[in-house]
Amino acid sequence: MNKDELNLTTKQMVYYHSKKRSKPLAYILGAFLGGFGVHGFYIGGETGNMLGGITLLALIGSFIDPMLFTGHMLMVFSGVVWTHFVVDSRNKELMEEARTFFDGE
Question: I need a labelling partner for 12 at 20 to 30 A (CA). Which of 29, 52, 101, 104 fits?
Answer without folding.
Answer: 29
